[in-house]
Amino acid sequence: xxxxxxxxxxxxxxxxxxxxxxxxxxxxxxxxxxxxxxxxxxxxxxxxxxxxxxxxxxxxxxxxxxxxxxxxxxxxxxxxxxxxxxxxxxxxxxxxxxxxxxxxxxxxxxxxxxxxxxxxxxxxxxxxxxxxxxxxxxxxxxxxxxxxxxxxxxxxxxxxxxxxxxxxxxxxxxxxxxxxxxxxxxxxxxxxxxxxxxxxxxxxxxxxxxxxxxxxxxxxxxxxxxxxxxxxxxxxxxxxxxxxxxxxxxxxxxxxxxx
Length: 259
Fold this sequence. Notes:
Layout: E1 3-6, H1 13-16, E2 25-28, H2 34-39, E3 45-49, H3 50-54, E4 60-69, E5 76-80, E6 89-93, H4 98-111, E7 116-120, E8 132-137, H5 138-147, E9 153-156, H6 157-165, E10 169-176, H7 182-197, H8 199-209, H9 216-226, E11 228-230, H10 233-246
């Protein structure tokens, strides 16, 4: 039986929620851990951070579906008590790869400051120190965006990228080492098609789990309006621009997306 790797965030559900109807198993792991599962052959294909794709020539993308945004994404953010230029220490979300690299690119290219980078594990009740920024991804990032804590500034990373480049930012796509059989590719497509046609059912499922403190309207807005799942030529252009900018500050194997 095929196994698909995915992340434990609600933005993945329109892609994977109906895979169970196609006799496909799902393996959950944080974005920072999905590459390991793929390398160890624990999964046949996985939603993989774009940073991992760009850093590994032996891994390839299907180029059909992704987790991305055109402008605001709401779930990938920096929180701080001050402005971006005032941040002296940036705490990177230990669960992330692509978002952390995006932060470094944004500061190097556009903010034009060089904070000290460190890693941490975000939590709902974390204390924010002055002159510090904190990257938060996933459902917790979404909760913070929609709750708008008093005295906290929220900077949307995808929106910052779009404002500078006019291009979508791709956080993840389906990647593999050995190309999966056609039946699995068809199952992935059919699961997505049913998922986007039944967003209301997925929203009900999320609310019934009671694992996120987000109301129905905001979940619907997020899944229907913020997350972009179809991969386009603009996504490729955005990824290649990100690659070229990221190469200024870190070593990456690829010369361009999928090559």
